[in-house]
Amino acid sequence: MESQKTFILGMVKFKTKLEPIREHIIKMQQEVAKDEFYKDVPSIKKKVNKNGYFFHAKDDIPEVREKFFRFIKTINCSFEAVVARKLPDLYETKHKGNEAWFYADLLSHLLKNKFTNHDKMVLNIASRGKSTKNQNLDLALAKAKERFYAANPEKELKTKVVFNVLEQTGEPLLNVADYFCWCIQNVFERGQMRYYNFMKDQISTVVDLYDFDSYGKKGWPNYYGKNNPLTTINEISPLSH
Q1: % of the chain residues with pLDDT over 70
Q2: Residue 16 falls in which region: left (phi positive, over 0), alpha (psi -120 to 50) or beta
Q3: At 75, is the pLDDT very low, low, confident or very high (cuts 50, 70, 90)?
Q4: What contacts 71, CB < 8 A, 6 or more positions away?
Q5: In degrees, to the nearest 5, what angle opens at C-alpha 206 toward C-alphas 68 and 12?
Q6: Domains and CATH numbers, the chain
Q7: Spatial separation of the C-alpha atoms in residues 234 and 240, rounded to whole Å
Q8: 34 contacts: CB under 8 Å, gap ≥ 6
């Protein structure tokens, strides 16, 4: 079994009403589940027989991926992600060898610049065992506030953050975030640009958090966006781990 070299957390900001998007995704899921062309696909059959079909990029077959990627392109939304290289020494020291601490640290980087735009921000988060327990989400929020004040000592924190932890099978909007994360992961894991290039107009920021060769340099080259897109150079070599 191939070992992944990165862990990615991403956040989608939807810029239109959520319910029509949610309803459309549910309709698409039902179409896939009932389509005769897909009825013998093991990954689809398994989901249909368990909790009902939902889009999940890693498991979906190419025909289904294309269908959902093309739909995401029609949504008025933006996506940002934090990419953490799985570095054993760092994991044991900085994150105490604990997956929940690792998750909290990454989430804090996604949240640290979100405290001045709105009075309230509601985050729908995909359930992930101990990592998304209330105590760990509170830890992530506390870390994010520390980072915010360290970078902005003169600013006032005004945004209240609320977490809704949901199963991916029950919140169709989480499928969108999953697909964005998958196309970015393909760049870092395999140097595969096809999906990222198709979706990059909606990807506002990707932070390669532990690219220590770039960290802190002029222009922050470990921050990627429309003016500094990811390329095949971002593929991580196994020798760097």
Answers
A1: 97
A2: beta
A3: very high
A4: 24, 25, 28
A5: 45
A6: 1-241 (3.30.420)
A7: 12
A8: none
What is the distance between the alpha carbons of residues 142 and 161, in angstroms, rounded to a whole number?
11
At 138, list the tokens: 């509170």
Structure tokens given for 194: 């096809």
Backbone angles phi, psi at 15, to 5 degrees: -105, 10
19-36: pLDDT as tens digits: 999 999 999 999 999 999
DSSP string, the chain: -PPPSEEEEEEEEE-S-HHHHHHHHHHHHHHHHH-GGGTT-HHHHHHHHHT-----TTTS-HHHHHHHHHHHHTS-EEEEEEEEE--HHHHHHTTTT-HHHHHHHHHHHHHTT-SSS-SEEEEEEE--GGGGSHHHHHHHHHHHHHHHHHH-TTSPP--EEEEEEE-TTT-THHHHHHHHHHHHHHHHHH---HHHHHHGGGEEEEEETT-TTTTTSTT-TTEEBTTB---GGGPPPGGG-
